[in-house]
């Protein structure tokens, strides 16, 4: 196992820049998830760590050694591909032992490693099969098995679950987490699915437009998003945003309604700012107190209910566990829990610790 | 899917018509090759002669230079097919996987070579090969055939490589293979259908090539079989029976060759490589 360190890493294809200088330190045994929308550079970053893409500028270190110019085969890392990339002309056992055969590991040692990995993944009945005779979930397991037999310095995952159906994805997610707890392997996991990111990561690296937006623990990103991008990307249903102008004791929204807030920093007065509030922090008021909002759409998820409202002409999503709203009329009353308001400045970056009740008061 | 009886019948009839159209010349070849000479002109047009004979075959095999032609053709076509497939695999892989500065021009140049009528090139090629001592030699023919077949075969192989996910060799490289090892152990086995198709295509192209064989070769020693067939045409007559018998014999290796590779031609080995 190893630590990985990335210093001012840049990638450009000709004049088209994909990564604009990424710095990241990954500790030995840490599970780091790179998350972001497609095209944010997360896969490119992963492929650069794997050695499948060249480095334009900056440095990648594995265990303190610079690996920029090292061929993928000499980096001693394993990767699980989105497509699984199983060798179709080899059996499951051959797929799993291929890396060991390339390293000229003794046959009995390799066989033992394959047996151990296949036991762990429940693949023993399939060892003699070819990949095409396996289901999607089984192929996924073989791809994982191929990675773990090697005991590499680090595991890289490139959206490994996105080809599975929802049920299987949930199951494999838990298995990956279990496997990591078991092996304590340094892992970098790329996904666009923020649920995967939240559930798996020790630390999340949120990326957008080739720039790291925020690095932190999952709850850190959820509770204290560093900017509008992270606030909107993490969480489902997504955070509500209300644009307005900062005034002395609050925010004047677009529709001229006033949202009282604690202290608004002086330098923001008169500036365009954005208020954010998560759907679960919008409170529906049964007694009709609060701001009147029109109920447009109800989406019951079974676990809870997502409501789409219009508040003073602005769209607002609400998440509630209270099924009574299903009987509600077209008008409901809402209040925004002030201690859960997030404030973002004109450049989209977070202002103060507004998610912290003490700071908001 | 349910379809009406009438469309099914029409469809089958159309297929049947095509098959008859395609195979009839072969049948006629066979028919003439077993027709005794005295019946060939006296019986008029019949589907099958009243008497059959194998004397043409016997004559072709025993008293003509056909076995030499045959051997030459096998050598020329076989080596051309192997050389071209080898080169086209490497260049097709390069075109499929790498981006390099002159790629566009190389592709354009290769396309350009396919645009000239070969007749135009016969004289210059003769002029080039003659001082090198490569006229009237099988080596010369192999070189010329290879040169003309490599571009098309490269495009053919490229399309097969394009069909193999890049992830596979990347996975192999991460597993510890060099690019060449990944090519040899992962990509090539999956390209067997493509290689078979390319081998078959080049082999038949070289097998039936007449123009260059005729121009670059004189004398029977280095003649290939298409040139040899012309020896059955003399100034005053055409020995159709022997010519057709030779034609039938010449079909055998081509048929045998396709029998060998057809298993790869129809096989989709990449199934199961990635989600599908």
TrEMBL record, chain A:
GO biological process terms held by the UniProt record: carbohydrate transport
Keyword Cell membrane: yes
Gene3D superfamilies on file: 2.40.50.100, Nucleic acid-binding proteins (2.40.50.140), P-loop containing nucleotide triphosphate hydrolases (3.40.50.300)
InterPro entries: AAA+_ATPase, ABC_transporter-like_ATP-bd, ABC_transporter-like_CS, ABC_transpr_MalK-like, ABC_transpr_MalK/UgpC-like, Mo/tungstate-bd_C_term_dom, NA-bd_OB-fold, OB_MalK-like
Membrane topology (UniProt): Peripheral membrane protein
Cited SMART domains: AAA
Domain ABC transporter: 4-234
UniProt keyword terms in alphabetical order: ATP-binding, Cell inner membrane, Cell membrane, Membrane, Nucleotide-binding, Transport
Main localization of the protein described in the UniProt heading: membrane
Transmembrane segments annotated in the record for this chain: none
GO function terms (MF aspect): ABC-type transporter activity; ATP binding; ATP hydrolysis activity
Localization, UniProt: Cell inner membrane
Record's GO cellular component terms: ATP-binding cassette (ABC) transporter complex, substrate-binding subunit-containing
Family: Belongs to the ABC transporter superfamily.
NCBIfam families, per database record: PRK11650.1 (NF008653)
Protein name: Glycerol-3-phosphate ABC transporter ATP-binding protein
Source species of the chain: Pseudorhizobium pelagicum
Taxonomic lineage of the native organism: Bacteria, Pseudomonadati, Pseudomonadota, Alphaproteobacteria, Hyphomicrobiales
Automatic annotation (TrEMBL), chain B:
InterPro entries in the record: BP-dep_ABC_trans_perm, MetI-like, MetI-like_sf
PROSITE patterns per the UniProt record, alphabetical: ABC_TM1 (PS50928)
Residue span(s) of domain ABC transmembrane type-1: 70-261
Cellular compartments per GO CC: plasma membrane
A Gene Ontology biological process term: transmembrane transport
Keywords attached to this entry: Cell membrane, Membrane, Transmembrane, Transmembrane helix, Transport
Compartments, record wording: Cell membrane
SUPFAM superfamilies the UniProt entry points to: MetI-like
Membrane topology field: Multi-pass membrane protein
Transmembrane segment boundaries: 12-30, 74-95, 104-126, 138-161, 182-204, 210-233, 245-266
Family according to the record: Belongs to the binding-protein-dependent transport system permease family.
Annotated protein name in UniProt: ABC transporter permease
Organism listed in the record: Pseudorhizobium pelagicum
């Amino acid at each position: 196992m190893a630590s990985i360190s990335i210093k001012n890493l840049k990638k450009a294809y000709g004049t088209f820049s994909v990564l604009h200088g990424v710095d990241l330190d990954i500790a030995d045994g840490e599970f780091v998830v790179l998350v972001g929308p497609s095209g944010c550079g997360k896969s490119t970053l992963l492929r650069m760590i794997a050695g499948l893409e060249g480095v334009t500028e900056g440095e990648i270190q594995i265990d303190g050694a610079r690996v920029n110019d090292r061929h993928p085969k000499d980096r001693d890392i394993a990767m699980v591909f989105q497509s699984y990339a199983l060798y179709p002309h080899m059996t499951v056992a051959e797929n799993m032992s291929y890396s060991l055969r390339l390293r000229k590991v003794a046959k009995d040692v390799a066989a033992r490693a394959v047996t151990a990995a296949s036991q762990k993944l429940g693949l023993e009945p399939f060892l003699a099969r070819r990949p095409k005779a396996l289901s999607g979930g089984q192929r996924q397991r073989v791809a994982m098995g191929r990675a773990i037999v090697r005991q590499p310095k680090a595991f890289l995952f490139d959206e490994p679950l996105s080809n599975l159906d929802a049920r299987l994805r949930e199951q494999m997610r838990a298995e990956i987490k279990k496997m990591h707890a078991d092996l304590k392997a340094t892992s970098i996991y790329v996904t666009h699915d923020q649920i995967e990111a939240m559930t798996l990561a020790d630390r999340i690296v949120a990326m957008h437009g080739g720039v790291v937006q925020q690095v932190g623990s999952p709850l850190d990103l959820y509770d204290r998003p560093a900017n509008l991008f992270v606030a909107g990307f993490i969480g489902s249903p997504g955070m509500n945003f209300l644009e307005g102008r900062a005034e002395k004791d609050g925010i004047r929204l677009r529709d001229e309604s006033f949202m009282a807030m604690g202290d608004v920093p002086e330098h923001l007065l008169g500036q365009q700012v954005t208020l954010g509030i998560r759907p679960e922090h919008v409170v529906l008021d049964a007694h009709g107190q609060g701001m009147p909002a029109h109920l447009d759409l109800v989406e019951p998820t079974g676990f809870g209910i997502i409501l789409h409202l219009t508040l003073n002409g602005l769209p607002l999503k609400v998440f509630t566990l209270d099924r009574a709203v299903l009987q509600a009329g077209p008008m409901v009353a809402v209040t925004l829990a002030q201690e859960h308001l997030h404030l973002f400045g004109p450049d989209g970056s977070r202002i103060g610790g507004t998610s912290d009740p003490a700071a908001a008061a | 899917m349910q379809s009406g009886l009438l469309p099914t019948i029409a469809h089958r009839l159309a297929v049947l018509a095509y098959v008859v159209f395609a195979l009839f010349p072969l049948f006629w070849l066979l028919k003439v090759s077993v027709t005794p000479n005295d019946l060939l002109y006296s019986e008029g047009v019949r589907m099958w002669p009243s008497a059959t004979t194998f004397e043409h075959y016997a004559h072709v095999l025993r008293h003509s230079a056909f076995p030499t032609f045959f051997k030459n053709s096998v050598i020329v076509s076989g080596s051309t097919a192997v050389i071209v497939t080898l080169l086209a695999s490497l260049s097709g892989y390069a075109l499929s996987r790498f981006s390099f500065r002159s790629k566009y021009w190389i592709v354009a140049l290769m396309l350009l070579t396919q645009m000239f009528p070969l007749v135009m090139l016969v004289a210059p090629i003769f002029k080039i090969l003659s001082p090198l001592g490569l006229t009237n030699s099988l080596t010369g023919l192999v070189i010329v055939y290879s040169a003309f077949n490599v571009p098309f075969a490269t495009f053919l192989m490229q399309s097969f490589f394009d069909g193999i996910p890049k992830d596979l060799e990347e996975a192999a490289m991460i597993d510890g293979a060099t690019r060449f090892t990944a090519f040899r152990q992962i990509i090539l086995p999956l390209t067997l259908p493509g290689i078979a198709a390319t081998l078959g295509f080049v082999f038949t192209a070289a097998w039936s090539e007449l123009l260059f064989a005729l121009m670059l070769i004189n004398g029977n020693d280095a003649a290939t079989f298409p040139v040899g067939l012309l020896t059955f045409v003399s100034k005053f007559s055409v020995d159709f029976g022997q010519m057709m018998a030779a034609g039938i014999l010449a079909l055998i290796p081509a048929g045998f060759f396709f029998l060998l590779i057809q298993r790869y031609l129809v096989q989709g080995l990449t199934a199961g490589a990635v989600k599908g």
